[in-house]
């Protein structure tokens, strides 16, 4: 499963990180994304929270780039 696919180096890096993250989650929580203990609304809430975190990370990087220019 971890063989290199016929894609770009960047795509292969992303896939490798996804595999590592899945393994980390399985080891840390003993669960996979096939778990059935959450409702669809709970999944959507988790996704929204992750998206909000992403927005914060992006804003921090944008701020840093603006500071570099000044």
What is the fold's blueprint, element by element?
Layout: H1 9-29, H2 40-69
What does this structure look like?
The protein has 70 residues and is mostly helical. The protein has helices at 9-29, 40-69. The longest helix is centred in the last third of the chain and has 30 residues, at 40-69.
Features:
mainly alpha, 0% strand, 70 residues
Runs in which pLDDT lies below 50 for 5 or more consecutive residues are none
Number of strands: 0
Mean pLDDT: 92
How much β-strand is present in the residues? under 5%
Helicity, as a percent range: over 70%
Largest sheet: none
The SSE order reads: HH
> Number of helical runs?
2
Shape: flat
- Span of the ends, CA to CA: 46 Å
Short description:
It is built from 2 helices and no strands. With 70 residues, the protein is mainly α.
């Amino acid at each position: 499963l971890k063989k290199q696919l016929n894609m770009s180096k960047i795509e292969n890096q992303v896939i490798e990180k996804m595999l590592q993250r899945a393994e980390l989650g399985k080891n840390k929580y003993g669960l996979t994304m096939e778990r059935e203990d959450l409702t669809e609304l709970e999944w959507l809430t988790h996704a929204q929270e992750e998206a909000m975190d992403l927005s914060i990370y992006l804003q921090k990087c944008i701020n840093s780039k603006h500071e570099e220019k000044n």
